[in-house]
Specification:
The protein has 326 residues and is α/β, with parallel strands linked by helices. The chain has two domains: 149 residues, Rossmann fold; 146 residues, Rossmann fold (3-Layer(aba) Sandwich), CATH 3.40.50. Helix content is 41%, strand content 18%. The chain contains 13 helices and 13 strands. The strands form two sheets. Strands 3-2-1-4-5-6-7 form a seven-stranded parallel beta sheet, with helices on both faces. It has a six-stranded parallel beta sheet with strand order 10-9-8-11-12-13, with helices on both faces. Strand 1, helix 1 and strand 2 form a beta-alpha-beta unit. Helix 3 runs parallel beside helix 4 and helix 7 runs parallel beside helix 12.
Protein backbone atom coordinates (compact mmCIF):
# COMPACT_ATOMS: atom_id res chain seq x y z
CA UNK A 1 0.00 0.00 0.00
CA UNK A 2 1.40 3.36 -1.05
CA UNK A 3 1.96 5.74 1.88
CA UNK A 4 1.25 9.45 1.38
CA UNK A 5 2.35 12.24 3.71
CA UNK A 6 -0.24 15.04 3.87
CA UNK A 7 1.23 18.43 4.81
CA UNK A 8 -0.55 21.69 5.59
CA UNK A 9 -1.58 24.06 8.35
CA UNK A 10 -3.50 21.26 10.02
CA UNK A 11 -4.52 20.53 13.59
CA UNK A 12 -4.99 24.13 14.76
CA UNK A 13 -8.76 24.28 14.32
CA UNK A 14 -8.75 26.61 11.32
CA UNK A 15 -11.98 25.73 9.54
CA UNK A 16 -10.74 26.32 5.99
CA UNK A 17 -7.58 24.26 6.42
CA UNK A 18 -9.48 21.44 8.10
CA UNK A 19 -12.02 21.32 5.27
CA UNK A 20 -9.19 20.86 2.76
CA UNK A 21 -7.49 18.28 4.94
CA UNK A 22 -10.64 16.19 5.44
CA UNK A 23 -11.56 16.34 1.77
CA UNK A 24 -8.14 15.23 0.53
CA UNK A 25 -7.77 12.60 3.23
CA UNK A 26 -11.17 11.05 2.46
CA UNK A 27 -10.27 10.87 -1.22
CA UNK A 28 -6.90 9.22 -0.59
CA UNK A 29 -8.37 6.66 1.80
CA UNK A 30 -11.12 5.88 -0.68
CA UNK A 31 -8.38 5.14 -3.22
CA UNK A 32 -6.78 2.76 -0.67
CA UNK A 33 -3.71 4.84 0.15
CA UNK A 34 -2.32 5.04 3.66
CA UNK A 35 -2.29 8.65 4.86
CA UNK A 36 0.18 10.01 7.40
CA UNK A 37 0.14 13.60 8.65
CA UNK A 38 2.20 16.24 10.40
CA UNK A 39 0.14 17.57 13.31
CA UNK A 40 0.71 19.44 16.58
CA UNK A 41 1.86 17.11 19.34
CA UNK A 42 -1.32 17.63 21.36
CA UNK A 43 -3.52 16.46 18.46
CA UNK A 44 -3.78 12.68 18.63
CA UNK A 45 -4.56 10.91 15.35
CA UNK A 46 -3.57 7.56 13.98
CA UNK A 47 -0.54 7.76 11.67
CA UNK A 48 0.29 11.29 12.84
CA UNK A 49 3.79 12.68 13.36
CA UNK A 50 4.67 15.73 15.43
CA UNK A 51 5.19 18.72 13.15
CA UNK A 52 7.38 20.44 15.76
CA UNK A 53 9.88 17.60 16.19
CA UNK A 54 12.59 17.50 13.51
CA UNK A 55 13.24 13.77 13.98
CA UNK A 56 9.53 13.06 13.71
CA UNK A 57 9.26 15.15 10.53
CA UNK A 58 12.23 13.37 8.94
CA UNK A 59 10.74 9.98 9.85
CA UNK A 60 7.42 10.93 8.30
CA UNK A 61 9.11 12.00 5.06
CA UNK A 62 11.46 9.02 4.82
CA UNK A 63 8.67 6.50 5.43
CA UNK A 64 6.35 8.02 2.82
CA UNK A 65 6.24 7.39 -0.91
CA UNK A 66 4.69 10.74 -1.91
CA UNK A 67 4.32 14.11 -0.16
CA UNK A 68 1.20 16.20 -0.79
CA UNK A 69 0.83 19.80 0.30
CA UNK A 70 -2.93 19.85 0.72
CA UNK A 71 -4.16 23.27 -0.32
CA UNK A 72 -3.86 26.77 1.10
CA UNK A 73 -1.20 29.44 0.84
CA UNK A 74 1.59 28.10 3.03
CA UNK A 75 4.35 29.20 0.64
CA UNK A 76 4.39 32.95 1.26
CA UNK A 77 6.31 35.17 3.65
CA UNK A 78 3.82 38.01 4.15
CA UNK A 79 2.60 36.61 7.46
CA UNK A 80 5.77 34.84 8.55
CA UNK A 81 9.19 34.14 7.04
CA UNK A 82 9.69 31.41 9.66
CA UNK A 83 6.55 29.65 8.43
CA UNK A 84 7.74 29.91 4.83
CA UNK A 85 11.09 28.35 5.75
CA UNK A 86 9.38 25.57 7.71
CA UNK A 87 7.36 24.42 4.70
CA UNK A 88 10.15 25.10 2.22
CA UNK A 89 12.53 22.83 4.14
CA UNK A 90 9.93 20.05 4.34
CA UNK A 91 9.48 20.09 0.57
CA UNK A 92 13.19 20.56 -0.13
CA UNK A 93 14.15 17.61 2.09
CA UNK A 94 11.40 15.48 0.51
CA UNK A 95 12.70 16.22 -2.97
CA UNK A 96 16.29 15.62 -1.85
CA UNK A 97 15.17 12.17 -0.65
CA UNK A 98 13.63 11.66 -4.11
CA UNK A 99 10.05 11.75 -2.86
CA UNK A 100 7.62 13.24 -5.41
CA UNK A 101 5.94 16.36 -4.02
CA UNK A 102 2.48 17.49 -5.14
CA UNK A 103 1.12 20.97 -4.42
CA UNK A 104 -2.60 20.26 -4.52
CA UNK A 105 -4.88 23.31 -4.73
CA UNK A 106 -2.40 25.92 -3.56
CA UNK A 107 -1.89 29.61 -4.07
CA UNK A 108 1.61 31.08 -3.88
CA UNK A 109 3.02 34.35 -2.60
CA UNK A 110 3.20 37.16 -1.94
CA UNK A 111 6.94 37.18 -1.25
CA UNK A 112 8.32 40.26 0.46
CA UNK A 113 11.90 38.99 0.69
CA UNK A 114 14.31 38.44 -2.16
CA UNK A 115 15.59 35.26 -0.48
CA UNK A 116 12.06 33.79 -0.40
CA UNK A 117 11.65 34.34 -4.13
CA UNK A 118 15.02 32.71 -4.88
CA UNK A 119 14.25 29.68 -2.72
CA UNK A 120 10.77 29.29 -4.17
CA UNK A 121 12.07 29.40 -7.76
CA UNK A 122 14.66 26.78 -6.83
CA UNK A 123 11.88 24.56 -5.49
CA UNK A 124 9.76 25.00 -8.61
CA UNK A 125 12.52 23.81 -10.94
CA UNK A 126 12.66 20.33 -9.41
CA UNK A 127 11.48 17.62 -11.82
CA UNK A 128 9.75 15.67 -9.03
CA UNK A 129 7.46 18.57 -8.18
CA UNK A 130 3.86 18.66 -9.50
CA UNK A 131 1.61 21.70 -9.05
CA UNK A 132 -2.18 22.11 -8.95
CA UNK A 133 -2.74 25.86 -8.58
CA UNK A 134 -6.09 27.17 -7.40
CA UNK A 135 -5.82 30.56 -9.12
CA UNK A 136 -4.62 31.87 -12.46
CA UNK A 137 -2.01 34.29 -11.08
CA UNK A 138 -0.22 31.50 -9.19
CA UNK A 139 -0.51 29.19 -12.19
CA UNK A 140 1.04 31.66 -14.63
CA UNK A 141 3.95 32.27 -12.26
CA UNK A 142 4.81 28.64 -11.49
CA UNK A 143 4.33 27.59 -15.12
CA UNK A 144 7.36 29.68 -16.06
CA UNK A 145 9.58 27.39 -13.98
CA UNK A 146 7.72 24.07 -13.99
CA UNK A 147 5.89 22.49 -16.92
CA UNK A 148 4.07 20.04 -14.61
CA UNK A 149 1.68 22.76 -13.49
CA UNK A 150 -2.12 22.75 -13.79
CA UNK A 151 -4.92 25.12 -12.78
CA UNK A 152 -8.04 23.86 -11.05
CA UNK A 153 -9.83 24.92 -7.85
CA UNK A 154 -9.82 24.64 -4.05
CA UNK A 155 -9.54 21.12 -2.54
CA UNK A 156 -12.39 21.72 -0.06
CA UNK A 157 -15.16 21.61 -2.69
CA UNK A 158 -15.93 17.83 -2.43
CA UNK A 159 -16.50 18.01 1.31
CA UNK A 160 -18.75 21.05 0.85
CA UNK A 161 -20.78 19.10 -1.70
CA UNK A 162 -21.77 16.72 1.12
CA UNK A 163 -23.37 19.60 3.02
CA UNK A 164 -27.13 19.96 2.64
CA UNK A 165 -28.77 23.24 1.78
CA UNK A 166 -30.51 24.95 4.67
CA UNK A 167 -33.54 27.21 4.59
CA UNK A 168 -32.62 30.88 4.30
CA UNK A 169 -33.31 33.06 7.32
CA UNK A 170 -34.80 36.23 5.93
CA UNK A 171 -32.67 39.37 6.33
CA UNK A 172 -29.80 37.51 8.01
CA UNK A 173 -26.14 38.41 7.42
CA UNK A 174 -22.97 36.61 8.54
CA UNK A 175 -19.64 38.29 9.25
CA UNK A 176 -16.43 36.22 9.38
CA UNK A 177 -13.97 38.37 11.39
CA UNK A 178 -10.21 38.16 11.62
CA UNK A 179 -8.30 41.41 12.12
CA UNK A 180 -10.68 44.38 11.99
CA UNK A 181 -11.57 45.45 15.53
CA UNK A 182 -14.70 47.42 14.68
CA UNK A 183 -17.60 46.71 12.33
CA UNK A 184 -19.77 49.63 13.43
CA UNK A 185 -20.18 51.19 9.93
CA UNK A 186 -21.03 47.76 8.48
CA UNK A 187 -23.62 47.03 11.17
CA UNK A 188 -25.25 50.44 10.72
CA UNK A 189 -25.37 49.91 6.96
CA UNK A 190 -26.82 46.40 7.33
CA UNK A 191 -29.58 47.78 9.55
CA UNK A 192 -30.23 50.53 7.01
CA UNK A 193 -30.47 47.89 4.25
CA UNK A 194 -33.18 46.01 6.11
CA UNK A 195 -31.17 43.22 7.75
CA UNK A 196 -32.43 42.26 11.19
CA UNK A 197 -30.04 39.47 12.23
CA UNK A 198 -26.21 39.49 12.14
CA UNK A 199 -24.01 36.60 13.29
CA UNK A 200 -20.25 36.90 13.80
CA UNK A 201 -18.95 33.50 12.70
CA UNK A 202 -15.30 32.73 13.59
CA UNK A 203 -13.31 30.36 11.39
CA UNK A 204 -10.52 29.75 13.89
CA UNK A 205 -10.34 29.37 17.69
CA UNK A 206 -8.11 32.45 17.79
CA UNK A 207 -10.95 34.50 16.27
CA UNK A 208 -13.56 33.48 18.86
CA UNK A 209 -12.73 36.22 21.43
CA UNK A 210 -12.95 38.86 18.69
CA UNK A 211 -16.29 37.49 17.46
CA UNK A 212 -17.66 37.58 21.01
CA UNK A 213 -16.50 41.16 21.55
CA UNK A 214 -17.86 42.39 18.22
CA UNK A 215 -21.23 40.80 18.95
CA UNK A 216 -21.65 43.05 22.01
CA UNK A 217 -22.28 46.09 19.82
CA UNK A 218 -25.98 46.91 19.61
CA UNK A 219 -27.85 48.61 16.78
CA UNK A 220 -31.52 49.50 16.85
CA UNK A 221 -33.68 46.83 15.16
CA UNK A 222 -30.60 44.63 14.60
CA UNK A 223 -29.99 41.43 16.56
CA UNK A 224 -26.25 40.83 16.80
CA UNK A 225 -24.80 37.50 18.04
CA UNK A 226 -21.90 35.10 17.52
CA UNK A 227 -21.57 31.36 16.99
CA UNK A 228 -18.97 28.66 17.58
CA UNK A 229 -16.50 27.69 14.84
CA UNK A 230 -18.27 24.39 14.16
CA UNK A 231 -21.57 26.20 13.48
CA UNK A 232 -20.17 28.79 11.06
CA UNK A 233 -20.92 26.87 7.85
CA UNK A 234 -24.54 26.31 8.87
CA UNK A 235 -25.03 30.04 9.49
CA UNK A 236 -23.48 30.93 6.14
CA UNK A 237 -25.84 28.55 4.33
CA UNK A 238 -28.82 30.19 6.05
CA UNK A 239 -27.76 33.76 5.31
CA UNK A 240 -28.59 36.26 2.59
CA UNK A 241 -25.22 38.03 2.73
CA UNK A 242 -21.71 37.15 3.96
CA UNK A 243 -18.88 39.56 4.76
CA UNK A 244 -15.63 37.66 5.24
CA UNK A 245 -12.02 38.34 6.15
CA UNK A 246 -11.24 34.65 5.62
CA UNK A 247 -10.66 32.97 2.23
CA UNK A 248 -12.94 30.03 2.96
CA UNK A 249 -15.65 32.22 4.43
CA UNK A 250 -16.07 33.84 1.02
CA UNK A 251 -15.58 30.51 -0.79
CA UNK A 252 -18.31 28.75 1.21
CA UNK A 253 -20.67 31.66 0.58
CA UNK A 254 -19.90 31.53 -3.15
CA UNK A 255 -20.33 27.76 -3.27
CA UNK A 256 -23.78 28.00 -1.68
CA UNK A 257 -24.44 30.96 -3.99
CA UNK A 258 -24.82 33.50 -1.18
CA UNK A 259 -23.79 37.07 -2.14
CA UNK A 260 -20.59 37.98 -0.33
CA UNK A 261 -18.05 40.72 0.31
CA UNK A 262 -14.45 39.53 0.55
CA UNK A 263 -12.54 41.86 2.86
CA UNK A 264 -8.87 42.57 2.19
CA UNK A 265 -8.19 39.15 0.63
CA UNK A 266 -6.39 39.35 -2.70
CA UNK A 267 -5.99 35.57 -2.76
CA UNK A 268 -9.73 35.10 -2.88
CA UNK A 269 -10.15 37.75 -5.57
CA UNK A 270 -7.58 35.88 -7.67
CA UNK A 271 -9.39 32.59 -7.04
CA UNK A 272 -12.93 33.78 -7.76
CA UNK A 273 -11.98 35.70 -10.91
CA UNK A 274 -12.10 32.36 -12.72
CA UNK A 275 -15.77 31.95 -11.84
CA UNK A 276 -17.05 35.52 -12.16
CA UNK A 277 -14.76 38.11 -13.69
CA UNK A 278 -16.93 41.17 -13.01
CA UNK A 279 -17.92 40.46 -9.40
CA UNK A 280 -18.08 43.65 -7.34
CA UNK A 281 -17.89 42.22 -3.83
CA UNK A 282 -14.32 43.06 -2.84
CA UNK A 283 -13.30 45.65 -0.26
CA UNK A 284 -10.05 46.84 1.31
CA UNK A 285 -11.59 48.22 4.48
CA UNK A 286 -14.73 48.53 6.61
CA UNK A 287 -15.98 51.73 4.99
CA UNK A 288 -15.66 50.28 1.49
CA UNK A 289 -17.35 47.07 2.65
CA UNK A 290 -20.27 49.13 3.97
CA UNK A 291 -20.61 50.81 0.58
CA UNK A 292 -20.51 47.46 -1.24
CA UNK A 293 -23.45 45.96 0.72
CA UNK A 294 -26.04 47.59 -1.52
CA UNK A 295 -24.02 46.59 -4.61
CA UNK A 296 -24.05 42.84 -3.94
CA UNK A 297 -27.27 42.41 -1.96
CA UNK A 298 -29.61 40.15 -3.89
CA UNK A 299 -27.08 39.17 -6.59
CA UNK A 300 -27.78 35.74 -8.07
CA UNK A 301 -24.59 33.67 -8.05
CA UNK A 302 -24.43 30.57 -10.24
CA UNK A 303 -21.00 29.08 -9.65
CA UNK A 304 -21.58 25.88 -7.67
CA UNK A 305 -21.85 23.59 -10.70
CA UNK A 306 -18.60 24.86 -12.22
CA UNK A 307 -16.77 24.54 -8.90
CA UNK A 308 -17.92 20.94 -8.56
CA UNK A 309 -16.90 20.08 -12.12
CA UNK A 310 -13.45 21.62 -11.59
CA UNK A 311 -13.00 19.71 -8.33
CA UNK A 312 -14.06 16.41 -9.90
CA UNK A 313 -11.56 16.86 -12.73
CA UNK A 314 -8.88 17.96 -10.27
CA UNK A 315 -9.21 14.89 -8.06
CA UNK A 316 -9.32 12.59 -11.08
CA UNK A 317 -6.06 14.17 -12.27
CA UNK A 318 -4.54 13.56 -8.83
CA UNK A 319 -5.67 9.95 -8.91
CA UNK A 320 -3.99 9.35 -12.28
CA UNK A 321 -0.85 11.20 -11.22
CA UNK A 322 -0.37 9.14 -8.06
CA UNK A 323 -0.95 5.95 -10.05
CA UNK A 324 1.68 6.96 -12.60
CA UNK A 325 4.18 7.79 -9.86
CA UNK A 326 4.17 4.16 -8.72
Amino acid sequence: MKKILLVGYYGFGNLGDELMRISIKKFLKRENYQVVELLPKEVKYENAYSRFNIISVLNAISKSDIVICGGGGVLQDKTSFRSFMYYYLIFKISLFLRKPVIFFGNSFGPFKRYLSRILFKDLLRNKKLYIFSRDEVSYKYVKKYNNKAFIYTDPSIPILSEEKYEKKVQRKAVIVPRKFRSYVPVLLCLANQGFTNVVFAPFSPEDVPLAKRLSNFSVKKLKVSYCDVEDSISHIKQSELVISERFHGALIAAYFEVPFISLKDEKFRRFFHKYQKDYNGYAKGIIEASYKISKVKGIKLQVRKQMEEDAKEMYEKLKNLIHNLA
